[in-house]
Amino acid sequence: MITYKVEENSNIIAISIDGEITQTDLHQVISEMEAIVDQYRELRIFAEVVAISGTEPGAIWEDLKFAFSHFGHIGRYAVVGDPKWLEPAIHILTPLSKPFTTANIRYFHRDRVEEAWQWLREEIEMLEILPMPVDNAIGLKLKGDLSTWDFERVADIIREKEKIHDKIGIYVEVEKFTGISIPTLLEELKFVFKRFDKFDKKAVVGDKDWMENVVKIGNNIFPNIEVKYFSFDEKDKAKSWIGS
Predict the structure, then answer these.
(1) How do residues 85-134 score in pLDDT, each as one tens digit?
(2) Residue 57 burial (10 A CB sphere; 0-12, 13-18, 19+)
(3) Phi, psi at residue 29, to the nearest 5°?
(4) Please, where are the H alpha helices in the chain?
(5) Crossing angle of the two packed helices 148-161 and 182-193, in degrees rounded to 10
(6) Which terminus of the chain has fewer Cβ atoms in its 10 Å neighbourhood, N or C?
């Protein structure tokens, strides 16, 4: 049995699992989660596991369909409980899911419920939109995992700018970058390939040696987009180059 409650004016859904997971129960929960994604784009989940006595085959399919459609929209996932198998299961599944989702998944023992809620309610921003000296450019600062929700924010801004400008420059400041899920990467590539003629310059600012090599590879893959690497000391130079 699954019971759930959506936190008021929030992108958090609280789920409690006690007994068999049925397709009907899971379908209702997934409908609520999809509504949250539609409104907020990012979903956070509080899942309390009391006991699991079994799962209907149809419920497994419902879960997989939602996971593949919305892995990139799940920001944080707190799993709370005290069954002995639960914590090691989370530790095993978390790294296995990394290529497919940027969701931050954590296990909390039942006596740490308040800590789990506090973690879920924290304000986090892995992608910051930066002001730029010219209107035909978008400025970004990466601070961690890039999610589908983050990418969609950027895509919306680009769609508005391309209505006004023939060419758009991109400034990316990499403060920290810990990964990108496969679904998000595919969405990004699909978006870029459709707009080959819209982007003319991309400035990548960072302090890692591998970034310069990635820029060189990018120039070979997208020859019509001029990509340059700048150090953090050259931020102003990079912005001026984008605006020139």
Answers:
(1) 788 887 777 776 666 666 788 899 989 999 999 999 887 667 788 999 89
(2) exposed
(3) -65, -45
(4) 23-40, 57-70, 86-97, 113-121, 148-161, 182-193, 209-221, 235-243
(5) 10
(6) C
